[in-house]
Input
Amino acid sequence: MPLLNRAIEMQDEVSQWRRHLHENPELMFDVHQTARFVAEKLRQFGCDVVETGIGRTGVVGIINGRHGEGSTIGLRSDMDALPLTEKTGKPWASRTGGKMHACGHDGHTAMLLGAAQYLAETRNFKGSIAVIFQPAEEGGGGGREMVKEGMMERFSISKVYGMHNIPGLPVGQFAIRKGPIMAATDEFTITVEGRGGHAAQPHRTIDPVVVGAQLVNALQTIVSRGTDPLDSVVLSVTQFHAGDAHNIIPQKAELAGTVRTLRPEMRDFAEKRLIEVAEGVAGALGASANVHYTRNYPVTFNHDRETDFAVQTARSIAGTGAVNEEVAPMMAGEDFSYMLEARPGAFIFIGNGESASLHNPAYDFNDDAIPHGISYWVRLAERSLPATS
Output
């Protein structure tokens, strides 16, 4: 089946919703205006249940089919923006300095709202659809909070699906894979304790800046010399803070960064070796290192059967050649992973065309993708819960 005619007809209206959301970005769990906008739309559409405040500021709408009782399938979107200053120059650019939708969550929200409107109008399925609008994907773990609050059990959700736009993939195309599709993302902070003193007398000090510099290089060997080249592991030192004056060797230096992995055993290995290397290098140079290691989002792991189903659904609207079912994993993180730990499901990428990259101040969601996203959600819902089953 090609794109839904109704989805094409809805594009202008849904684009206006998207641009309204883009103009009014909110961060993390502080998405009160966005959640209110979403809840009001769901009520206008005639959703049977609209619940707010789930996982602090999440929204769930329930749409019952007109063909009797059945299971409940969850469709999830994220709502939060990023702490960036927008540089798109678009008429609908952010009205709030230092905040912008640089990851397309405005588009995700609008597409799922469009699908909810269609499904509430037609109800051509047996069972129920839960449309899930989640806060705090960008580092806050809103998906984890919604799961911890019992969302899956409360709404009897049996399977759950997610979608994210990808710049560089043509509009109208999809990409997915079985197994790990996005990485586990961990964070570390290393505090190097030396002995401060006068910059003219370095021999009387233990210079934490020199220790930290050695440590930056040594940490890279964890990946380059400690892991199989075919294993995906990324270790990045992204911060180095030390000292306040030109003529003082400081007492401390602080390094921070991220570790990204696709397999649990490599996650364990990377954490263990990072601590060993930090303490070992610092100790060898007469300093000490204190490591604070935080496990953040787990691997986003697509389940086999649900991935096959998502591929078939995407092909039904885009064609066989427009769906890549063996896309390479991305080493970025995604807290839809928590929902996939709680229920079987799949996470798919939808093309945003040639645009600035995600998390870039020049990025903007491509409204031409809207009919494709709406059609995918609707077909997924109707094919998951066929009226004749």
